[in-house]
Amino acid sequence: MHHVLDDYTNARISYSLKKYDISDIFFKHILGYLKEVPGFIPDYNMDGAKLDKEAINKKLNELKQKMSDLRNAVQKRELKEINKQSDEIFHMCVGCHEGTKKKYLFREPNESGETIFQEYMHKISEDFKTARIYAESKEFNETEEYLKLINFYLSLLEDIFPDKGPSGIILDRDGFVRRIKGFEKLNEDAQKNIKEKKMFDSDSFKKSLNELCVACHEPERIK
């Protein structure tokens, strides 16, 4: 469910920026997570009270339908319906979390221990690893989707670049922006190769991604 909330947040960001193809990828992932959730519902909550799995599954099905409706509204660019469905999803989430950990729905960026910039950079790293796994399995449609998500996160980084890195060293913002632009172009070329040649040069991609990472902390590398 944490993945659902995370991807829903990013879906809203992307469609607010009119990046509807990116939103659709997030909604696809959300619906996939919701399909898997019933198999992981515990018998008891953290306080030891027995959970009503039938009621939980009913709520999950309602949420799944709402997410599907919102996805359709975004695909059709229906602003009024988008606002309606997103409001209903918000109230549905609050209703389920009422009296428990409702605060979780309103997490401030720093409450996770990461800045937004760090969070997006780590998502880029994670999505690259996932893209590489799909490419090795020759599942190129999924590979392309995760490369698109990487460029989505890259597009958000320029305006939130920190003044200092983890070690306190002043960072070169202009140099980082140049690296972003170069990496975005490399990513676009990689997506083109996937479509046309059904190949993904993950080693070259990893090397360029590492060069982007050293802007903040030289020792860290993609494993």
In short:
This protein is 67% helix and 0% strand. The chain is mainly α and 223 residues long.
Write a structural description:
The chain has 223 residues and is mainly alpha-helical. It contains 8 helices and no strands. The chain has helices at 2-16, 20-36, 53-75, 79-97, 116-136, 140-157, 173-197, 202-213. It is globular and about 50 Å long. 20% of the residues are buried. Mean pLDDT is 83; it is low at 101-111 and 219-223.
| Terminal Cα span | 27 Å
Helix content: 55-70%
How does the major sheet shape up? Answer: none
String of helices and strands: HHHHHHHH
Primary descriptors:
mainly alpha; 223 residues; 8 helices; globular
Q: What topology does this entry show?
A:
Layout: H1 2-16, H2 20-36, H3 53-75, H4 79-97, H5 116-136, H6 140-157, H7 173-197, H8 202-213
Helix pairs in contact: 1-2, 2-3, 3-4, 5-6, 5-8, 6-7, 7-8
